[in-house]
Write a structure and sequence with these properties.
The chain contains 11 helices and 8 strands. Strand 5, helix 4 and strand 6 form a beta-alpha-beta unit. The chain is globular, with a radius of gyration of 21 Å. Keywords: Hydrolase, Signal. It comes from Sessilibacter corallicola. GO terms for molecular function: hydrolase activity.
Protein backbone atom coordinates (compact mmCIF):
# COMPACT_ATOMS: atom_id res chain seq x y z
CA UNK A 1 0.00 0.00 0.00
CA UNK A 2 2.75 2.40 0.94
CA UNK A 3 4.53 1.61 -2.31
CA UNK A 4 1.52 2.93 -4.27
CA UNK A 5 1.08 6.09 -2.25
CA UNK A 6 3.96 8.05 -3.72
CA UNK A 7 3.15 7.24 -7.40
CA UNK A 8 -0.53 8.01 -6.78
CA UNK A 9 0.31 11.30 -5.15
CA UNK A 10 2.66 12.11 -8.00
CA UNK A 11 -0.03 11.25 -10.56
CA UNK A 12 -2.62 13.34 -8.74
CA UNK A 13 -0.19 16.25 -8.55
CA UNK A 14 0.47 16.00 -12.29
CA UNK A 15 -3.27 15.83 -13.07
CA UNK A 16 -4.02 18.84 -10.89
CA UNK A 17 -1.17 20.78 -12.49
CA UNK A 18 -2.30 19.88 -16.03
CA UNK A 19 -5.92 20.72 -15.23
CA UNK A 20 -4.92 24.06 -13.76
CA UNK A 21 -2.70 24.81 -16.74
CA UNK A 22 -5.48 23.91 -19.17
CA UNK A 23 -7.97 26.04 -17.27
CA UNK A 24 -5.57 28.97 -17.30
CA UNK A 25 -4.94 28.54 -21.02
CA UNK A 26 -8.68 28.34 -21.69
CA UNK A 27 -9.56 31.39 -19.64
CA UNK A 28 -6.55 33.64 -19.99
CA UNK A 29 -4.87 33.09 -23.35
CA UNK A 30 -6.10 34.62 -26.58
CA UNK A 31 -6.64 32.00 -29.25
CA UNK A 32 -6.76 32.46 -33.01
CA UNK A 33 -8.51 30.53 -35.74
CA UNK A 34 -10.57 30.58 -38.93
CA UNK A 35 -14.07 29.37 -39.73
CA UNK A 36 -15.33 28.64 -43.25
CA UNK A 37 -18.47 30.70 -43.93
CA UNK A 38 -20.09 30.71 -47.37
CA UNK A 39 -16.76 29.96 -49.01
CA UNK A 40 -14.86 32.61 -47.05
CA UNK A 41 -12.23 32.03 -44.37
CA UNK A 42 -13.32 34.16 -41.42
CA UNK A 43 -10.48 34.86 -39.01
CA UNK A 44 -11.31 35.29 -35.35
CA UNK A 45 -9.76 35.89 -31.95
CA UNK A 46 -11.29 34.34 -28.85
CA UNK A 47 -10.52 34.14 -25.17
CA UNK A 48 -12.09 32.65 -22.08
CA UNK A 49 -14.17 29.58 -21.33
CA UNK A 50 -17.02 29.08 -23.84
CA UNK A 51 -19.29 28.04 -20.96
CA UNK A 52 -19.07 31.58 -19.55
CA UNK A 53 -21.33 34.46 -20.69
CA UNK A 54 -20.40 35.39 -24.25
CA UNK A 55 -19.47 38.81 -25.62
CA UNK A 56 -19.32 39.20 -29.40
CA UNK A 57 -16.89 41.97 -30.37
CA UNK A 58 -17.66 43.68 -33.69
CA UNK A 59 -14.95 45.98 -35.04
CA UNK A 60 -15.13 49.21 -36.98
CA UNK A 61 -13.52 50.77 -40.04
CA UNK A 62 -10.69 50.60 -40.96
CA UNK A 63 -9.77 48.21 -38.18
CA UNK A 64 -10.18 44.53 -37.38
CA UNK A 65 -10.44 42.27 -34.33
CA UNK A 66 -7.02 43.71 -33.42
CA UNK A 67 -8.82 46.67 -31.84
CA UNK A 68 -10.20 44.36 -29.12
CA UNK A 69 -6.87 42.85 -28.07
CA UNK A 70 -6.92 44.50 -24.61
CA UNK A 71 -10.49 43.43 -23.79
CA UNK A 72 -9.79 39.85 -24.88
CA UNK A 73 -6.99 39.71 -22.32
CA UNK A 74 -8.67 41.60 -19.49
CA UNK A 75 -12.16 40.02 -19.46
CA UNK A 76 -11.37 36.40 -20.26
CA UNK A 77 -11.40 35.30 -16.62
CA UNK A 78 -15.18 35.69 -16.33
CA UNK A 79 -16.39 35.87 -19.93
CA UNK A 80 -16.05 34.17 -23.27
CA UNK A 81 -15.09 36.72 -25.90
CA UNK A 82 -15.06 36.23 -29.65
CA UNK A 83 -14.07 38.80 -32.27
CA UNK A 84 -14.32 37.99 -36.00
CA UNK A 85 -12.82 39.93 -38.90
CA UNK A 86 -15.32 40.70 -41.67
CA UNK A 87 -14.62 39.67 -45.29
CA UNK A 88 -12.13 42.16 -46.72
CA UNK A 89 -10.87 43.18 -43.27
CA UNK A 90 -8.01 42.04 -41.06
CA UNK A 91 -6.97 38.44 -41.62
CA UNK A 92 -10.21 37.18 -43.17
CA UNK A 93 -10.64 36.33 -46.84
CA UNK A 94 -10.46 39.27 -49.22
CA UNK A 95 -12.70 38.29 -52.15
CA UNK A 96 -13.05 40.63 -55.11
CA UNK A 97 -16.22 42.63 -55.77
CA UNK A 98 -17.08 40.06 -58.43
CA UNK A 99 -16.85 37.21 -55.90
CA UNK A 100 -18.59 38.92 -52.98
CA UNK A 101 -21.10 41.76 -52.81
CA UNK A 102 -19.82 44.21 -50.20
CA UNK A 103 -22.91 45.43 -48.40
CA UNK A 104 -23.68 45.61 -44.71
CA UNK A 105 -26.50 43.11 -45.24
CA UNK A 106 -23.95 40.59 -46.48
CA UNK A 107 -21.40 41.34 -43.75
CA UNK A 108 -24.10 40.84 -41.12
CA UNK A 109 -25.17 37.59 -42.78
CA UNK A 110 -21.58 36.29 -42.69
CA UNK A 111 -21.12 37.25 -39.02
CA UNK A 112 -24.45 35.72 -38.00
CA UNK A 113 -23.62 32.46 -39.80
CA UNK A 114 -20.17 32.53 -38.22
CA UNK A 115 -21.69 32.75 -34.73
CA UNK A 116 -24.09 29.91 -35.50
CA UNK A 117 -21.25 27.71 -36.73
CA UNK A 118 -19.25 28.50 -33.61
CA UNK A 119 -22.24 27.55 -31.45
CA UNK A 120 -22.56 30.99 -29.83
CA UNK A 121 -26.30 31.07 -29.11
CA UNK A 122 -26.71 33.78 -26.45
CA UNK A 123 -24.45 36.78 -26.19
CA UNK A 124 -23.90 40.44 -25.53
CA UNK A 125 -22.83 42.45 -28.56
CA UNK A 126 -20.12 45.08 -28.34
CA UNK A 127 -20.15 47.32 -31.39
CA UNK A 128 -17.94 50.12 -32.65
CA UNK A 129 -18.37 52.12 -35.88
CA UNK A 130 -19.11 49.52 -38.63
CA UNK A 131 -19.86 47.04 -35.87
CA UNK A 132 -23.11 48.92 -35.14
CA UNK A 133 -24.90 48.38 -38.48
CA UNK A 134 -23.73 44.77 -38.47
CA UNK A 135 -24.66 44.19 -34.83
CA UNK A 136 -28.06 45.87 -35.04
CA UNK A 137 -29.00 43.81 -38.09
CA UNK A 138 -28.17 40.64 -36.15
CA UNK A 139 -29.92 41.82 -32.99
CA UNK A 140 -33.10 42.94 -34.74
CA UNK A 141 -33.34 39.61 -36.59
CA UNK A 142 -32.49 37.49 -33.51
CA UNK A 143 -33.66 39.42 -30.43
CA UNK A 144 -33.92 36.25 -28.34
CA UNK A 145 -30.15 35.72 -28.62
CA UNK A 146 -29.00 39.17 -27.54
CA UNK A 147 -28.59 39.64 -23.80
CA UNK A 148 -27.23 43.19 -23.88
CA UNK A 149 -25.64 45.78 -26.13
CA UNK A 150 -22.36 47.59 -25.49
CA UNK A 151 -21.82 50.56 -27.79
CA UNK A 152 -18.45 52.24 -28.10
CA UNK A 153 -19.23 54.94 -30.66
CA UNK A 154 -21.55 52.54 -32.45
CA UNK A 155 -24.25 54.77 -33.88
CA UNK A 156 -27.96 54.18 -34.61
CA UNK A 157 -29.30 57.76 -34.89
CA UNK A 158 -29.12 60.47 -37.54
CA UNK A 159 -28.21 63.02 -34.86
CA UNK A 160 -25.15 60.85 -34.22
CA UNK A 161 -23.64 61.57 -37.64
CA UNK A 162 -21.35 64.57 -37.97
CA UNK A 163 -22.59 66.01 -41.27
CA UNK A 164 -19.37 68.01 -41.79
CA UNK A 165 -16.95 65.08 -41.59
CA UNK A 166 -19.40 62.85 -43.49
CA UNK A 167 -20.02 65.44 -46.24
CA UNK A 168 -17.98 63.77 -49.06
CA UNK A 169 -19.53 60.37 -48.32
CA UNK A 170 -23.08 61.78 -48.12
CA UNK A 171 -22.47 63.48 -51.45
CA UNK A 172 -21.12 60.18 -52.83
CA UNK A 173 -24.46 58.53 -52.03
CA UNK A 174 -26.20 60.73 -54.61
CA UNK A 175 -23.31 61.21 -57.06
CA UNK A 176 -20.88 58.25 -56.90
CA UNK A 177 -18.39 59.72 -59.38
CA UNK A 178 -14.77 58.71 -59.83
CA UNK A 179 -13.69 62.24 -58.92
CA UNK A 180 -15.53 62.13 -55.60
CA UNK A 181 -14.24 58.62 -54.96
CA UNK A 182 -10.70 59.93 -55.46
CA UNK A 183 -11.31 62.69 -52.89
CA UNK A 184 -12.57 60.15 -50.38
CA UNK A 185 -9.59 57.91 -51.06
CA UNK A 186 -7.15 60.77 -50.46
CA UNK A 187 -8.88 61.96 -47.28
CA UNK A 188 -9.63 58.54 -45.75
CA UNK A 189 -7.29 55.86 -47.10
CA UNK A 190 -3.89 57.56 -46.80
CA UNK A 191 -1.36 56.66 -44.11
CA UNK A 192 -1.80 60.06 -42.48
CA UNK A 193 -5.58 59.65 -42.48
CA UNK A 194 -5.26 56.24 -40.83
CA UNK A 195 -3.11 57.72 -38.08
CA UNK A 196 -5.45 60.68 -37.64
CA UNK A 197 -8.45 58.43 -37.04
CA UNK A 198 -6.68 56.83 -34.09
CA UNK A 199 -5.10 59.94 -32.59
CA UNK A 200 -7.67 62.69 -33.17
CA UNK A 201 -9.41 63.69 -29.97
CA UNK A 202 -7.16 61.65 -27.69
CA UNK A 203 -5.68 63.10 -24.52
CA UNK A 204 -2.21 61.78 -25.29
CA UNK A 205 -1.66 60.96 -29.00
CA UNK A 206 1.88 59.73 -28.29
CA UNK A 207 0.48 56.88 -26.21
CA UNK A 208 -1.56 55.37 -29.08
CA UNK A 209 0.01 52.20 -30.49
CA UNK A 210 1.31 52.90 -34.04
CA UNK A 211 0.69 49.25 -34.99
CA UNK A 212 -3.00 50.21 -35.33
CA UNK A 213 -2.68 52.48 -38.35
CA UNK A 214 0.31 50.64 -39.79
CA UNK A 215 -1.69 47.40 -39.95
CA UNK A 216 -4.80 49.17 -41.24
CA UNK A 217 -2.85 51.01 -43.93
CA UNK A 218 -1.17 47.77 -45.02
CA UNK A 219 -4.56 46.10 -45.35
CA UNK A 220 -6.25 48.96 -47.17
CA UNK A 221 -3.32 49.32 -49.58
CA UNK A 222 -3.93 45.88 -51.09
CA UNK A 223 -5.06 45.97 -54.74
CA UNK A 224 -8.85 46.11 -54.93
CA UNK A 225 -9.38 47.50 -51.42
CA UNK A 226 -10.29 50.98 -52.66
CA UNK A 227 -13.20 49.59 -54.64
CA UNK A 228 -14.64 47.43 -51.88
CA UNK A 229 -14.33 50.15 -49.25
CA UNK A 230 -16.02 52.66 -51.54
CA UNK A 231 -18.78 50.09 -52.05
CA UNK A 232 -19.32 49.95 -48.28
CA UNK A 233 -19.23 53.76 -48.00
CA UNK A 234 -21.91 53.90 -50.71
CA UNK A 235 -23.99 51.24 -48.97
CA UNK A 236 -23.78 53.07 -45.64
CA UNK A 237 -26.79 55.12 -46.72
CA UNK A 238 -28.88 51.97 -46.22
CA UNK A 239 -27.77 51.87 -42.59
CA UNK A 240 -29.20 55.35 -42.07
CA UNK A 241 -32.47 54.22 -43.66
CA UNK A 242 -32.62 51.35 -41.16
CA UNK A 243 -32.06 53.54 -38.08
CA UNK A 244 -35.84 53.76 -37.36
CA UNK A 245 -36.09 49.94 -37.39
CA UNK A 246 -33.17 49.58 -34.98
CA UNK A 247 -34.66 52.19 -32.70
CA UNK A 248 -37.96 50.30 -32.79
CA UNK A 249 -36.06 47.12 -31.84
CA UNK A 250 -34.57 48.91 -28.83
CA UNK A 251 -37.97 50.22 -27.71
CA UNK A 252 -39.68 46.86 -28.10
CA UNK A 253 -37.03 44.45 -26.83
CA UNK A 254 -35.39 46.78 -24.28
CA UNK A 255 -31.95 45.13 -24.13
CA UNK A 256 -29.75 46.62 -21.40
CA UNK A 257 -27.36 49.08 -23.06
CA UNK A 258 -23.92 50.11 -21.88
CA UNK A 259 -22.69 53.33 -23.52
CA UNK A 260 -18.91 53.93 -23.43
CA UNK A 261 -18.49 56.76 -25.92
CA UNK A 262 -15.46 58.82 -26.90
CA UNK A 263 -16.88 62.35 -26.92
CA UNK A 264 -14.19 63.77 -29.25
CA UNK A 265 -15.11 61.45 -32.13
CA UNK A 266 -15.03 63.42 -35.39
CA UNK A 267 -17.52 61.06 -37.05
CA UNK A 268 -20.01 60.05 -34.35
CA UNK A 269 -20.44 62.87 -31.81
CA UNK A 270 -21.86 62.62 -28.31
CA UNK A 271 -25.37 63.39 -29.58
CA UNK A 272 -25.47 59.84 -30.96
CA UNK A 273 -24.79 58.44 -27.50
CA UNK A 274 -27.37 60.73 -25.92
CA UNK A 275 -30.05 59.53 -28.36
CA UNK A 276 -30.04 56.00 -26.88
CA UNK A 277 -31.62 57.44 -23.72
CA UNK A 278 -34.93 58.11 -25.46
CA UNK A 279 -35.43 54.47 -26.49
CA UNK A 280 -33.74 52.40 -23.76
CA UNK A 281 -34.90 52.20 -20.14
CA UNK A 282 -31.96 50.26 -18.71
CA UNK A 283 -28.93 52.27 -19.79
CA UNK A 284 -25.50 52.70 -18.20
CA UNK A 285 -24.27 55.94 -19.74
CA UNK A 286 -20.57 56.88 -19.85
CA UNK A 287 -18.93 59.64 -21.88
CA UNK A 288 -15.14 59.47 -22.09
CA UNK A 289 -12.66 62.23 -22.89
CA UNK A 290 -11.10 60.51 -25.89
CA UNK A 291 -11.58 59.89 -29.60
CA UNK A 292 -13.13 57.49 -32.11
CA UNK A 293 -11.19 54.42 -30.92
CA UNK A 294 -11.81 54.91 -27.20
CA UNK A 295 -10.36 51.51 -26.33
CA UNK A 296 -6.90 52.68 -27.30
CA UNK A 297 -6.77 55.17 -24.45
CA UNK A 298 -9.42 53.92 -22.02
CA UNK A 299 -9.48 50.14 -22.35
CA UNK A 300 -8.98 49.66 -18.60
CA UNK A 301 -11.94 51.90 -17.76
CA UNK A 302 -14.13 50.29 -20.43
CA UNK A 303 -13.17 46.80 -19.28
CA UNK A 304 -14.30 47.55 -15.72
CA UNK A 305 -17.48 49.21 -16.96
CA UNK A 306 -18.34 46.08 -18.94
CA UNK A 307 -17.60 43.79 -16.02
CA UNK A 308 -19.75 45.84 -13.64
CA UNK A 309 -22.57 46.28 -16.18
CA UNK A 310 -22.90 42.57 -16.96
CA UNK A 311 -22.47 41.43 -13.35
CA UNK A 312 -25.08 43.87 -12.05
CA UNK A 313 -27.62 42.52 -14.55
CA UNK A 314 -26.69 38.91 -13.73
CA UNK A 315 -26.11 38.10 -17.39
CA UNK A 316 -25.19 34.44 -17.63
Amino acid sequence: MSKCTTPLRFLLTVLIFVSAANAQALSGDVRYGTEKVDGQEIFFREAGDPSNPAIVLLHGFPSSSHMYRELLASLSDDYYLIAPDYPGFGNSSFPSKEEFTYTFDNLAKVVNTFLEKKGVKKYSIMMQDYGAPIGFRIAAANPERVQSIITQNGNAYEVGINKDSWAPIIQYWSTPTKELGAIIEKNVYSADAMKWQYTHGTRNPESILPDNWILDYANISRPGQTEIQLALFYDYQNNVKLYPQWQAYLRKEQPPVLVVWGKNDAFFPESGAEAFKKDVKDIDYNILNTGHFALEEDHAIISEKIRHFLAKRKIK
